[in-house]
């Protein structure tokens, strides 16, 4: 159960943060900032306490004709790193080989969002998406590829502006190298991408 982000408490903390950096939270420019940040945090952390299984509960009837592979590629990925509370963003590609259950396609971005909108690290996020699909769909295989740039890597610390982290989580038949390579070819960037 998601108790939701306590906006008032976030706003009070942001006000304190503004004081701590030497800014004046009562100035005309900053007076509404704590509330604005609280609204932003409510979006960033909307997935805290949300059970992704709710999005996988309703199967689509396909009368056994599941096809061999379902892939949603280029799902927008927005998360927040748990080390610095800075955004990391990019794309999620989610594939599964159906067992008997197939869900509506929109369920996959919803699972990604629910697990991403909380303090995260990229590797754990990928594993949690894969595990949610295993639990909810009992598929033959799962492959989750995440590619993201991290604010804490691009804008502070090492300041590697172009660097992207790519992580893979796999289960079952899609952990097998040839099957994995087939899916990776489908999610290759731009012109190198395989057409189905
Ligand atoms: N593996 C992994 N590391 C992450 C992720 N997000 C941020 N990090 C890294 O977590 C590490 C945190 O390291 P710390 O030594 O605690 O923090 P730091 O001193 O700010 O590290 P620097 O970023 O190197 O300055 C850094 O190397 C970050 O780049 C993630 O999703 N996965
Ligand atoms: Zn970080």
From TrEMBL:
<keyword id="KW-0554">One-carbon metabolism</keyword>
<dbReference type="InterPro" id="IPR043134">
    <property type="entry name" value="GTP-CH-I_N"/>
</dbReference>
<dbReference type="InterPro" id="IPR043133">
    <property type="entry name" value="GTP-CH-I_C/QueF"/>
</dbReference>
<keyword id="KW-0378">Hydrolase</keyword>
<dbReference type="InterPro" id="IPR018234">
    <property type="entry name" value="GTP_CycHdrlase_I_CS"/>
</dbReference>
<protein>
    <recommendedName>
        <fullName>GTP cyclohydrolase 1</fullName>
        <ecNumber>3.5.4.16</ecNumber>
    </recommendedName>
</protein>
<comment type="similarity">
    <text>Belongs to the GTP cyclohydrolase I family.</text>
</comment>
<feature type="domain" description="GTP cyclohydrolase I">
    <location>
        <begin position="11"/>
        <end position="187"/>
    </location>
</feature>
<dbReference type="InterPro" id="IPR001474">
    <property type="entry name" value="GTP_CycHdrlase_I"/>
</dbReference>
<keyword id="KW-0862">Zinc</keyword>
<feature type="binding site">
    <location>
        <position position="84"/>
    </location>
    <ligand>
        <name>Zn(2+)</name>
    </ligand>
</feature>
<keyword id="KW-0547">Nucleotide-binding</keyword>
<feature type="binding site">
    <location>
        <position position="81"/>
    </location>
    <ligand>
        <name>Zn(2+)</name>
    </ligand>
</feature>
<dbReference type="InterPro" id="IPR020602">
    <property type="entry name" value="GTP_CycHdrlase_I_dom"/>
</dbReference>
<comment type="subunit">
    <text>Homopolymer.</text>
</comment>
<feature type="binding site">
    <location>
        <position position="152"/>
    </location>
    <ligand>
        <name>Zn(2+)</name>
    </ligand>
</feature>
<dbReference type="GO" id="GO:0003934">
    <property type="term" value="F:GTP cyclohydrolase I activity"/>
</dbReference>
<keyword id="KW-0342">GTP-binding</keyword>
<dbReference type="Pfam" id="PF01227">
    <property type="entry name" value="GTP_cyclohydroI"/>
</dbReference>
<keyword id="KW-0479">Metal-binding</keyword>
<comment type="pathway">
    <text>Cofactor biosynthesis; 7,8-dihydroneopterin triphosphate biosynthesis; 7,8-dihydroneopterin triphosphate from GTP: step 1/1.</text>
</comment>
């Amino acid at each position: 159960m998601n108790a939701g982000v306590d906006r008032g408490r976030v706003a009070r903390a942001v006000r304190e943060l503004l004081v701590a950096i030497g800014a004046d939270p009562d100035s005309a420019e900053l007076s509404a900032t704590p509330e604005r940040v609280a609204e932003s945090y409510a979006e960033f952390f909307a997935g805290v306490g949300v059970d992704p299984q709710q999005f996988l509960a309703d199967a689509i009837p396909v009368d056994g004709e599941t096809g061999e592979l379902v892939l949603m590629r280029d799902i927008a990925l927005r998360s927040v790193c748990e080390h610095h509370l800075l955004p990391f963003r990019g794309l999620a590609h989610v594939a599964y080989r159906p067992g008997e259950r197939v869900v509506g396609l929109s369920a996959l971005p919803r699972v990604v969002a629910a697990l991403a909108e909380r303090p995260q690290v990229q590797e754990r996020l990928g594993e949690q998406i894969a595990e949610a699909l295993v639990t909810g769909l009992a598929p033959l295989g799962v492959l989750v590829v995440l590619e993201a740039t991290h604010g804490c890597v691009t804008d502070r610390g090492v300041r590697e502006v172009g660097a992207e982290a790519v992580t893979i989580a796999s289960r079952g038949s899609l952990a097998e190298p040839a099957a994995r390579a087939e899916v990776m070819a489908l999610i290759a960037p731009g012109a190198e991408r395989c057409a189905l």
